[in-house]
Amino acid sequence: xxxxxxxxxxxxxxxxxxxxxxxxxxxxxxxxxxxxxxxxxxxxxxxxxxxxxxxxxxxxxxxxxxxxxxxxxxxxxxxxxxxxxxxxxxxxxxxxxxxxxxxxxxxxxxxxxxxxxxxxxxxxxxxxxxxxxxxxxxxxxxxxxxxxxxxxxxxxxxxxxxxxxxxxxxxxxxxxxxxxxxxxxxxxxxxxxxxxxxxxxxxxxxxxxxxxxxxxxxxxxxxxxxxxxxxxxxxxxxxxxxxxxxxxxxxxxxxxxxxxxxxxxxxxxxxxxxxxxxxxxxxxxxxxxxxxxxxxxxxxxxxxxxxxxxxxxxxxxxxxxxxxxxxxxxxxxxxxxxxxxxxxxxxxxxxxxxxxxxxxxxxxxxxxxxxxxxxxxxxxxxxxxxxxxxxxxxxxxxxxxxxxxxxxxxxxxxxxxxxxxxxxxxxxxxxxxxxxxxxxxxxxxxxxxxxxxxxxxxxxxxxxxxxxxxxxxxxxxxxxxxxxxxxxxxxxxxxxxxxxxxxxxxxxxxxxxxxxxxxxxxxxxxxxxxxxxxxxxxxxxxxxxxxxxxxxxxxxxxxxxxxxxxxxxxxxxxxxxxxxxxxxxxxxxxxxxxxxxxxxxxxxxxxxxxxxxxxxxxxxxxxxxxxxxxxxxxxxxxxxxxxxxxxxxxxxxxxxxxxxxxxxxxxxx
Length: 669
Hints:
By secondary structure, the protein is of the alpha+beta class.
């Protein structure tokens, strides 16, 4: 953690503070294909987004309730056309974010493409609508909402007319930088904001390969080695059959990955990530496998199935080799199931090829050594004999399976607000599990299938010490310590009832703040969510205003709160010296009709709380990126007292920023 924090600070020092100005990191354009559609036939409206270097744009095909705001394209009831199906994102990247969003989102870099099928119903058509998206920087940590309108007008069987799209690509008629979108995620620094991980198929292949080699250590796999050697000593096909054997192992695993790829997609991935049914299913499976690994019972496949497949393998030749590979997969499944399943779950959250690549890597870890055993049976004599060490590996995996099971239960608990597994309960369970693992590794407890006690090896002692250190790290969390290194695994702090004296209590919100029924400030701060209400409160309290332009899906906003606002020096100033108002620029809550207005910035009607807050930020402070912090004198309410700041992880910088604003306010008449 210290190394990560140091790297994070170094990057923060090197960052150039962003000036308050409107920026447009993503430019939308659109066209229709074919250019000459006929009445009654289908066409596609193609949206392309040019994304600047070091920026990314959230896609349209992940769960809108996950946190980041998905890209949306809304079509008006137009003339001469009707939409067919929904908007389709073309090959976005995918990321499973366990630290912030607890799920999977999709995004684009460099260029994004979305397509919408339409049906032409008349000779004259007019296609109109609006788009709503968000782009974030991997370098500065800023997030910018991107919003605009589009229009395509033409005649069937004719090229698009000059007043709508003389060229195949038409530039937006509305400002590209006026926005309302909710996505937010990675932004780059090392600790306070994270660059999207390498989601390439190549990187995922190596992860899956590593999981496969780990699965080779399980007890169900080891006995298959002599079975393989025995089988191939009887065959006359030589190395050809041995390579065929490895190929069949790969094909069988990849086949299941292909099936998953066929049925999976972004919606299926979101279902796996957030719905209670798959999460409870995974919880149950991991618990059962974990208890089995501890020695309570054995999970085996139906004997009739295994015996039938094994009998087929005795025939030898091509068919025999296939069924020998099938036997290996079936017999080993009772131990490798959780590992293979984890790869498939992760793979289902990516593009179509990802499950195939994942299973390819996982199965190659099996195919390579077993192919070598088939070619050179003498290798077996050099292997360590199976024995108590394999059971120890199995027990360790059992404890880990049980611990990970509660992560799935925690996801369902948070999404559906069951409050069965609040933070302190989750921590208590993990402390108990890893304490038991520590005692086992030190030889203080034994389990049913353990052999006679013996002296501890150096690797086992070091591993036991590492687990003990992890337990010690967890304990302060029971008293309210944030445990930032596990922030993506643990339930949120606001779910913890039992807190120590240093823990942050929720804000009392005794000020009847508007929108406080669904919005809240972090770290126990008591503030507002409406500018006019906050301004009135600041005048009454004779304090300056601290305006926090933020967003639900703004990762860097959360990072600033977690690493900068939480510092005692900063938090004390925010509580005592300022009236804080958080203006969420991505909130989709629709306001009453009497509060709607037409923006002077882009001429569009602003109906939602987020639209109005963003419009206020652009109009008053010429900025459209979050986070964005403004210090304002409510007595003047004309311009910021100090140059506004954006993402800056240096606590001293932020303290000086707050102190300068307070000093200017106090010296002003």
